[in-house]
Fold:
Amino acid sequence: MPKKKILIVEDDGLESMDLQEKLQLWKYEVPAIANSGEKAIEDALETKPDLILMDILLKGEIDGIEAAEKIKDLEIPLVYITAYSDDKILKRASSTKPYNYVLKPFDERELKFTIEMALHRHEMERKLKESEKSLRLITDNMLDMVGWLDLEGIFRYVSPSAKLVIGCEREDILGKSAFDFIHDDDLEEVKQNFQKVISTLSPVRLPFRCKHGDGHYIWIETVNNPFFDDGQLKGIVFSAHDITDRKKMEKAIKDSGERYKTLVKTLPDAITTTDLDGNIIYASPRTVKLLGYKNSKELVGKSVFELLAPEDHKALENAIKEGSIKNLEQKFIKKDGSSFIGELNASLIKDSDGNPVAFIGTTRDITQRKKAEKELWKSKDLLEKTFKSLKDAVFIIDTKTVKIIDCNPAASTIFGYSYDEMLGRTTTFLHVDKAALEEFRKHLNYAVKDKGYLSSYEFRMKRKDGSIFPIEHSMMPLEDCDGKRMGWVSVVRDISHRKKMEEKIKASLKEKELLLQEIHHRTKNNLMIISSLLNLQSKYIKDEKTLNIFRESQNRAKSMALIHEKFYGSEDLGKIDFGEYIRNLAAELFHSYALDPKIKLNLNVEDIKLDINTAVPMGLIVNELISNCMKHAFPDEREGEIKIYLRAFGEKLMLTVSDNGIGFPEGLDYKKTESLGLQLVQNLVKQIEGKIEFERSPETTFKIIFEELKCNDR
Structure:
């Protein structure tokens, strides 16, 4: 048996290597490891894996969720492996219909179990689809009309061939009584045989006249068998075919021997006449063809027992002794040795004195019908086994009574009640209290009205021992083949373990947030200490040039400290309001340089959130550009204005720092200046993958265009 192939999609090299070793140890094949969404799509199309382990956050243009969306038509089961449990991310991920989630760091046994269950579930879903497709194909293409009557004789299902047999569309039949279609002269006999099937649980073959769709009556022959569902008698399953022609032929046979021979040649059933010992006297053309002989001469004189499988001889002998044969299923052997299942009916032919002289019988090939019945029961058996093997509690709820009509073994395991204790009751006793029940009903009514079903609703339920536990509840309508609602399928999953894990994760995240706050706080304090040390040291420096260097270094330390202070106080530890940061930094620098009040500051900055990877270099850039204006743009107490703009357009961000001072010296290239500040600006812009533009007039302007660095870029 070939190994199952599992595609790993993970951008962390060490984690992907660890995953690969585990999967190979568990006897799985790893055809490829993708480190980006684009590579995941390419590898999935090329390797056609049996399962994909997909990280959500990936390098490249698209993340794991987008990659999963693009390959969902491949119908490959998907399990997300992620360190993130954010509701927004999980909500996006759920739209791709993954089979499960495994949170990092994952438990090895949990991962192995999740993979096994995903592969098993996918295989079961595939087999179920194939089985249902085969069953539907068989019933939809049968020439005989197949149907199901409930215990009151109401049509609950009929095959599309009803149009061919009795000239009625299915919607004109479903929900109506079968007795409404029976000829008055045949009605009593049909009712008696209907009750006979139900009371004796024995099959009955019955010909009678049925009303055709255009108003006239036709002869049909039905084979009726008791229909059980989960061990309970639900009604009758029947197959019916038009025997109008046969009935006409039978009448003609009585009227004329010549006409009898002519009509027999055209009958769809094989007709055979034998003596009282079972030797063939006459074989119709259909008999010859059905058994694979060239002509009737090859059959005349043969014993019918030569045409039957040895194991069926006894049944035929017993039927002959009784003087008639009704609906006897036999295995017939053709001339070439192949076989088919035939349904045999025969009766005695008597002379004018009433003495039996021969048997006349009809044989119909029912091989296809038997195959269809076998497939039907096979499909039902598969559904029953799947139902019983599910680990979630599954209840079948009747539409009219709202009572439990069936449940699987997991329901007893989860709730602590036996099957008999739950059967025939409403699910009220499983709810915590009346208030919880009302809340659930409101949510259910809203979900059914909005979507037609309830999906993954979390609340609490109660076990037999009184303990209350968290569950995930889904309800889907149960419909018959014509779309009529018969009941509800209620699926309850015990999520106690998952909830405990979620609480542990939340607690862990809270600890990490506090730790991150403390790191920002300490970093800010350390930078402020450096700033203070530089300030103390500067008091001993007399050289103005050296003093300016110390002041610039002090301002740089303050600008970074201010960023960490903003992160420390931010509700979202991953981002700060950069517009507010610029306003605070500009105020600090104006105070530091003690500028003349003639210099005005014009701020027009939007409140834009940036993460630390972008905020720190941008903070230093703002510090250098503002400091540069303050130091050089307004000598000799000149009046002027410094303008700072920050705005977003699409995914791009633009920072502009300009002044109307003395201007940038002509002939001096800002890219080649020896100024440490402008060199820092250029290097920091490259670091954030931004673009810098410089204008000399009408104002000296530095324009920085950039994007926030994504986690994939780190």
The chain has a mean pLDDT of 81. Residues 617 and 687 are 8 Å apart (CA to CA). The longest strand covers residues 217-229.
